[in-house]
Amino acid sequence: MGKVPGKLGSIPKLRILTVHANYLSGEIPSSFGNLSSLEVLSATANQFVGRIPETLRDIKRMRIIAFGINKLSGEIPFSIYNLSSLSVFDFPVNQLQGSFPSDLGFTLPNLELLNVADNQFAGPIPASISNTSNLMTLAIGGNGFSGKVPSFENLHKLREVSISQNPLGNGEKDDLEFVNSLVNTSRLELLEISDTNCGGMLPEAVGNLSTRLRKLSVGNNQLFGNIPSGLRNLVNLELLDLGDNQFIGRIPESIGYLQKLQGLWLNGNKFLGEIPSSIGNLASLTILDFSANLLEGSIPSSLGKCQNLISLNLSNNNLSGTIPTEVIGLSSLSIYLDLSQN
């Protein structure tokens, strides 16, 4: 608790400085720039304010810099982007502004984690990011990044790509073209593209993404067309969000292949036909939202096999018939049940 003493900057042989979650306040001391041997600077979850001091550019050996969940503001000095030894660049949940330098991928070639989520960044995602061949996590959601998402073709080690809540798309058919460049990232586990103003169809290549993929989120965009048939291949999916788009056609029976699904959102689209009986194969499902579509027919009794379901929303459709006793008898349904306006 309190402020960090500037005297800390007078320990030239210090290699690791970790002060996360200590309720520290005030500005980052400019004297930190004197820590010429420092390799790790971690101060996550404090209350630091003000700007990032330009003097940090002098810590040439720094591999990890982490100031997430603070109250830092202003722009990150461009000289910080020249610390070529950095593997972790971690500044989420602050009030930082500015844009990435166009040569970011060349000046920070050793990046493994780039996280500036929930700030106020703007401008394009630089195409040079394809040069960061060791990158495993790209988390830039909740900013103002804009423009076409570049190719990730050379980033074979990617595990998490989170670019949601940025005005990246133009509602055009090629907005999701970059997804094609992810088919060779065999370790990909998370892909979040929701709320990015992207248009077009969900590329067929989505079915060729890593079978390790656990979360796929493309909700709240302007996507249309049918669900790609190859989606059935993503057998380790736990969360699938296609909600609030303009998808059409029937919900495929093959949705039942995704037996590890825990959350499934197809709400706010134009799906028609009956709810597939294969939905009963999703034994791990806890949240199911098919609301605001054009679904018809009766609620399948197989839904009663989803013994872990706690939230079910089938409202605003054209469903008819009686509610199956198997569904009414679901003891797990304890949070939310909405069958209205059918």
Automatic annotation (TrEMBL):
<dbReference type="Pfam" id="PF00560">
    <property type="entry name" value="LRR_1"/>
</dbReference>
<keyword id="KW-0472">Membrane</keyword>
<dbReference type="InterPro" id="IPR052592">
    <property type="entry name" value="LRR-RLK"/>
</dbReference>
<dbReference type="InterPro" id="IPR001611">
    <property type="entry name" value="Leu-rich_rpt"/>
</dbReference>
<dbReference type="GO" id="GO:0016020">
    <property type="term" value="C:membrane"/>
</dbReference>
<keyword id="KW-0433">Leucine-rich repeat</keyword>
<dbReference type="InterPro" id="IPR032675">
    <property type="entry name" value="LRR_dom_sf"/>
</dbReference>
<protein>
    <recommendedName>
        <fullName>Leucine-rich repeat-containing N-terminal plant-type domain-containing protein</fullName>
    </recommendedName>
</protein>
<keyword id="KW-0677">Repeat</keyword>
<keyword id="KW-1133">Transmembrane helix</keyword>
<keyword id="KW-0812">Transmembrane</keyword>
